[in-house]
């Protein structure tokens, strides 16, 4: 396994998926007392997101190639999309209103657009496209599994996460991660422009 690729992928995925923020939102969407329902929703959301990120990451580029879209164009558009996501992370407020309604939140909004949204799916394609060796591809795969597994654990422990970090802690963390994501987005755009020129 390529450790540098793994750490880069874990960092990028952690920033855009934000497992802690996802756990806090999950906590507000699922009734607190229904432990079985919470487990099923968390497990389904993690599984669906993992499959989407892996499949789209591996086969998204060939699909785009058939449509005549280059990886450099994807880097630029993906970078702009990630920057928009980062901008929203920094500037927008999120409401956490606890629900008592028992409904399926695994696909929407937990998997799509939260865990496997446009930003993270684009990032998965970019990470797999940069991973030229088998070791690097396995590292990206391991990074996806690490982040989705940690998100699953945090969703299952979301009531404790809420007690420990609280709304203020999440606000600080989300905005800090937004700044890092903005820098990552600009790097993707720069790489895309360099690739087109070169």
From TrEMBL:
Keywords: Cell membrane, Membrane, Transmembrane, Transmembrane helix
Transmembrane segments: 6-27, 39-57, 63-87, 107-129, 135-156, 176-197
Stored Pfam families: MarC
GO cellular component entries: plasma membrane
Keyword Lipoprotein: no
InterPro entries: Multi_antbiot-R_MarC
Membrane topology reported for the UniProt record: Multi-pass membrane protein
Protein name per UniProt: UPF0056 membrane protein
Family: Belongs to the UPF0056 (MarC) family.
Primary localization: membrane
Subcellular location: Cell membrane
């Amino acid at each position: 396994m390529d450790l540098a690729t793994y750490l880069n992928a874990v960092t990028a995925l952690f920033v855009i998926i934000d497992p802690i923020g996802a756990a806090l939102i999950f906590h507000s969407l699922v009734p607190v007392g229904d432990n079985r329902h919470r487990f099923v929703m968390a497990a389904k959301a993690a599984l669906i997101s993992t499959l989407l990120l892996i499949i789209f990451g591996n086969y998204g580029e060939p699909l785009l190639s058939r449509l005549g879209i280059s990886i450099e164009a994807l880097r630029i558009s993906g970078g702009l999309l990630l920057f928009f996501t980062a901008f929203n992370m920094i500037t927008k407020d999120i409401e956490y209103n606890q629900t008592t309604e028992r409904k399926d939140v695994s696909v929407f909004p937990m998997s799509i657009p939260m865990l496997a949204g446009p930003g993270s799916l684009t990032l998965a394609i970019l990470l797999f496209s940069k991973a030229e060796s088998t070791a690097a591809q396995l590292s990206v795969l391991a990074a996806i599994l690490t982040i989705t597994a940690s998100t699953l654990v945090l969703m299952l422990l979301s009531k404790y996460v809420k007690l420990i970090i609280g709304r203020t802690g999440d606000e600080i963390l989300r905005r800090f991660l937004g700044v890092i994501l903005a820098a990552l987005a600009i790097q993707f755009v720069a790489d895309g422009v360099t690739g087109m020129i070169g």
